[in-house]
Amino acid sequence: MSDLEFGNTASGVENCEAYVNPRPGLVNLGNTCFMNSALQALSMTPDFCRNLMLSECKSKIVVHLQRLIALMHYSRHHVLVPPSVLSASNSAMFVAGEQQDISEYLGYLLNSLSEAEKAKGCVPACDDQLNLTIADKSFSGQLTNIYKCLVCSHESRIPNKFRELQLAFPECTGNPKINFTVQNLIEHNSLPEILDGDNKYACPTCATYCKGEHHMRITQGPRNLIITIKRFGYDRATHQPTKLMHKVYHNNSISLEQYDNAMQQFTILLYRLYAIVIHVGNSLDSGHYYVLARDAEHRWIKFNDSEVSYVKSSEVRHLRSQNSAHMLLYALNDEVDMVAEEDKENAAPMSHMAPLTLEELPAKLRKFLKRNLGNEPPNQTTQ
Question: What pTM, to 2 d.p., does this model score?
Answer without folding.
Answer: 0.85
